[in-house]
Amino acid sequence: MQPQIIGVRFSKIGKIYHFDGSAVADVQVGEHVIVDTSRGKNLGEVAIRLKETPPPPEDGGWRRIDRRATPRDLVLRQSWQSKQTAAMIECRARASELELHGVKIVAAEYNYDGTRLVFLFSTETEDKVDLKSLKRDMQKMFSQPQVELRQIGPRDVAKLLGGMGACGLETRCCSKFLTDFSPISIKMAKEQGISLTPNEITGMCGRLRCCLVYEYEQYVAARKELPKRNKRVVTPRGEGKVTDVMPMSATILVLLDNDERHYPVPFNRDEIQPWDELEALRRKSEAPCDRHEGGGCTCGKDRKEKSQKSVETQEPIQESKPQPRPQQKPQQQAEKKKPERQERRGDHRRRPPGRK
């Protein structure tokens, strides 16, 4: 029997994890379930039911969903969540006493039954920081749950804190709908023609904005159909050089050679022809055919070349045609006929006797 895979989310805008839902086959989207994770049991919300079974994870089989969450489980989670802020304040105070200035305690998270307490922190540098003393002190202070310290990146910090985005949105994209962070590079900003000023391409987290990846594929596909900058093109108004392109509107700015203003003129993609291709076709049409000697050419270039040479030398092309016979004059015909008549007369006179 194939397992029924169900996607579960542990936070409002969080990553979806997949579990085997055979134990609760009739569970619906929006219900809460208790699942067994690598960090113990936790309470999550059903986000999606997969129709097709995906390949199993590399670390083994699918983890199972234990049961549906009861109203008592939901109330228990709310009671422990109300204590998270106080735990975070205690941890920040102890980190300040230990002079851990490069460590910032971002949040504290209890699981639904209070058996595990996780402190999320970030560091200003990528160097490892020794937090054994802080963890030991927090374990003594909170003896009932198991205390953990987990480091998160600057994007996760911005997602937890929330707030207004650099673009002016009331809620940042990471806190509003992004469940996972895609890799972003400076190449994406260059491809879209965005200014590389740090203030314009970095978000509140200090990293490149997540929105740079939203339209990157569309820009790449559109630029493949447009000429690149500094390319020679042919327009309805003459030849020129491409100064800039606007991929989303399929518009090309061309600096014309015959324009005295030296100001680029916009043209549509259908009005532009590449100069190098037209030049290559022109040279190919003017070049002689390399198949004349073999006799297999039917392009007619040999006849064109002969006609051009004859025009240049003003000599007609001599063709091998049968010459007509010269017409004879009437006197010559009469002279030829006279001997024939005389021969006939002589023959008549020389007839043997006895014949009439």
What report would you give on this structure?
This protein is of the alpha+beta class. It has four domains: 5-69, no CATH class; 80-152, GMP Synthetase, Chain A, domain 3 (2-Layer Sandwich); 158-220, no CATH class; 232-280, SH3 type barrels (Roll), CATH 2.30.30. Helix content is 31%, strand content 22%. It has helices spanning 71-81, 84-97, 132-141, 154-161, 173-176, 186-191, 198-201, 216-223, 275-286, 301-313, 330-349; strands at residues 5-9, 16-20, 32-37, 40-49, 65-68, 103-110, 116-123, 146-151, 232-235, 238-246, 251-256, 265-268, 273-274. It has a five-stranded antiparallel β-sheet. It has a five-stranded antiparallel β-sheet with strand order 12-11-10-9-13. The longest helix has 20 residues, at 330-349. The radius of gyration is 47 Å and the shape is elongated. The chain starts with a strand and ends in a 7-residue tail after the last helix. The model is unreliable at 340-349 (pLDDT under 50).
Descriptive keywords:
356 residues; alpha+beta; GMP Synthetase, Chain A, domain 3; five-stranded antiparallel β-sheet; 11 helices; 13 strands
Coarse morphology: elongated
Rg value: 47 Å
CATH class of the largest domain: Alpha Beta
Q: Report the sheet-strand fraction.
A: 15-25%
Largest sheet: 5 strands, antiparallel
Number of domains: 4
Number of helices: 11
Please, what is the average pLDDT? 81
Structural class call reads: alpha+beta
Under CATH, the topology of the largest domain can be stated as GMP Synthetase, Chain A, domain 3
Q: Could you estimate the helical fraction of the residues in percent?
A: 25-40%
Parts with pLDDT < 50 across at least 5 consecutive residues: 340-349
Question: CATH architecture of the largest domain, please?
Answer: 2-Layer Sandwich
Q: Please state how the strands of the largest beta sheet are arranged side by side.
A: 2-1-4-3-5
Number of strands: 13
The succession of helices and strands, N to C, reads EEEEEHHEEHEHHHHHEEEEEHHH
**Distance between the amino and carboxyl termini:** 134 Å
